[in-house]
Structures are given as structure tokens and as C-alpha cells.
Specification:
This protein is of the alpha/beta class. It contains 11 helices and 9 strands. The chain folds into 2 domains: about 200 residues, Rossmann fold, CATH 3.40.50; about 70 residues, rRNA adenine dimethylase, C-terminal domain (Helicase, Ruva Protein, domain 3, Orthogonal Bundle), CATH 1.10.8.
Length: about 290
């Protein structure tokens, strides 16, 4: 069934009007499928007084429907031409509480966007795929001022982030993200929903940072090191990984037993709390 879409038309019109050539280096794939846009916006379940932040608004495909749901909104756009044309489309007079930050999302101090009055941040974005993981890690360092995050990424990355323990794709990204956040896979988005279409299928997911983490590592940096180092050798047993690693201490059978972990197990079978137990135990052996 063909479904002529009003938004699709206005968006491609505005692409032509601004003569904007999508810039590959900025990871520009603009959403134009109206039903996908609606599904994304609905999945966020906004309240009018939310402190909404959008990363990479581009031509405003998500921005305009999002702005209709809230009283105030801040967007962060690296491409100055796009930021300027967005300012023209979303006038300061009609939308006095619409703020544009022309900057790299990696340089933004998200804490400065938080206040007790405005509330915690609700971050949204069809992220530039080439820098998606650094942006996610950057945002995790502000988890205490973030209520939740809704992002579009390559489906494969979203599957890794939300993967269950034991699955083939469960890895470093799953453990680190699931340590800090509750993760939800929300919807799959086909390539044709974008202009230009990206090379791969995309998906939208939600990260909700824990206010109280279910389990806390005694040393989070060390925990991250253990997770990285073990998944660098995901086919080996834990016993062998700890024995051969120059970064980690050798663990005895008693050490493994104290964590309730089989030394013959492989990293992908360990839950987040197993990794926390293992890193706490290994840290004890460091001087
Ligand atoms: N949200 C829009 C555009 C998605 S394309 C839509 O769904 O149609 C990704 C957008 O992120 C582009 O506008 C690109 O210019 C912007 N961008 C790329 N790298 C960025 C960065 N480091 N910080 C902020 N914005 C960035």
C-alpha cells in the first residue's frame, strides 16, 4: 500500500529549499517516514514539563513533533548550516523556549542543562552512527542527571546493548550499559525510512539509568577493565583469561568459588552481577 506522507513531502521540500547535501562525515541520514517518526515520538511518552534534549536534530524530522509535546526543548547540532536553517524554521518568537546549542554533542556539559526546577534530562536522538559508542559512554558519565535516553542506532548495536546473558552477541557493550541502565529494545526501523538510506537496518531503544543500581562495583573503573579484558578473549575460559592477562591478577579456585563462578565458564555466560563479583574479588588481589 502506498502511503503519501505529508511530513515526507515537507522534509524533502525543505532539503531542496536549503539545498542541503547530506554530509556523510556527520552521519546524516534524515528520517522521512511519518509513521516511524510518530512511533518514535509515542514511545518516549513525553510530559509537557519534561527537560527534553535532542542530539543531532538535522532537518527537524523528530524535533518538530517532539516540540509539539513539551513546553521547552534544547537541541544540540554540530552542523552549523543545519542549526541555522532549523532556527529559521522554528522561530524564536513562536518558540521562546526552544534552544539550539551549536556544538559537538561530545563537548556538551549535560550537567549544565540540569536544574532542580527543569528536572532530569530526557535525551533523544537519531545519533550519528560513526560516533555512537563514544556518545553513549560520554552520556553515561552524566547518568545521575539523566532520566532516560531514546536513541536510534544500527540494529546490530542495539541488539548488542540489549542482549541477554548467554547470547552470542552479549559482550562488553551489553554488560557496561546494563550495569548503568535498564535497557529496552523498542522498534526496528527499515533503511527506507531515511534519506539517504543508511547501509544497515536501524532500531530505537531506551536506556534508563538506575537511580539505585541493583548491584554496585567497588571500583567502577576496575570493573570496566575486567569486562573489557575478559571479552577481548571471549572464547577462552575465565581461568585462562585471568592467568594469561598482564592487566589482571591470577585467580585461584577459591577466588572463583567465592564469586560462585565456574572457572571453566566463558565471559558471555556471566551476568552483570557475576562481573561485579569477579571484579571485586580480583581487585582484592591488586596491591
Ligand atoms: N534527527 C534527524 C537527523 C539525523 S542525522 C533525523 O532523524 O532526521 C544525524 C544528525 O546528527 C545530523 O543532523 C548531524 O549533523 C548531527 N551530528 C553529527 N555528529 C554530531 C555531533 N557530534 N554532535 C551533534 N550533532 C551531530
Amino acid at each position: 500500500m502506498s502511503k503519501p506522507s505529508f511530513d515526507a513531502k515537507t522534509l524533502s521540500d525543505s532539503l531542496r529549499a536549503t539545498k542541503h547535501q547530506p554530509r556523510k562525515r556527520f552521519g546524516q541520514n534524515f528520517l522521512h517516514d511519518r509513521s516511524v517518526i510518530r512511533e518514535i515520538v509515542e514511545s518516549i511518552r513525553l510530559e509537557r514539563d519534561d527537560n527534553l534534549i535532542e542530539i543531532g536534530p538535522g532537518m527537524g524530522a523528530l524535533t518538530e513533533p517532539l516540540l509539539a509535546e513539551v513546553d521547552a526543548m534544547t537541541v544540540i547540532e554540530l552542523d552549523r548550516d543545519l542549526a541555522d536553517s532549523l532556527r529559521i524554521r522554528i522561530g524564536a518568537n513562536s518558540h521562546p523556549n526552544f534552544t539550539i546549542i551549536k556544538d559537538n554533542a561530545m563537548n556538551v556539559d549535560y550537567r549544565a542543562l540540569y536544574s532542580a526546577e527543569r528536572g532530569k534530562l530526557r535525551v533523544v536522538g537519531n545519533l550519528p552512527y560513526n560516533i555512537s559508542t563514544p556518545i553513549l559512554f560520554h552520556l553515561l558519565s552524566y547518568a545521575d542527571v539523566i532520566q532516560d535516553m531514546h536513541f536510534m542506532l544500527q540494529k546490530e548495536v542495539v541488539e548488542r546493548i540489549t542482549a541477554e546473558v548467554g547470547s552470542k552477541i552479549y559482550g562488553r557493550l551489553s554488560v557496561i550499559m546494563q550495569y548503568h541502565c535498564n535497557t529496552d529494545y523498542l522498534l526496528t526501523v527499515p533503511r527506507g525510512a531515511f534519506n539517504p538510506p543508511p547501509k544497515v537496518t536501524s532500531a530505537v531503544f531506551r536506556l534508563t539509568p538506575y537511580v539505585n543500581k541493583p548491584i554496585v562495583a567497588e571500583n567502577e573503573q576496575y570493573f570496566a577493565l575486567v569486562v573489557r579484558e575478559t571479552f577481548n578473549h571471549r572464547r577462552k575460559t575465565l581461568r585462562a583469561i585471568f592467568k594469561n592477562s598482564t592487566l589482571l591478577p591470577t585467580l585461584s579456585e577459591d577466588d572463583f568459588a567465592a564469586c560462585g563462578i565456574d572457572p571453566q565458564a566463558r565471559p558471555e555466560t556471566l551476568s552483570v552481577s557475576d562481573f561485579v563479583a569477579l571484579s571485586n574479588q580480583a581487585k582484592l588481589l591488586e596491591v
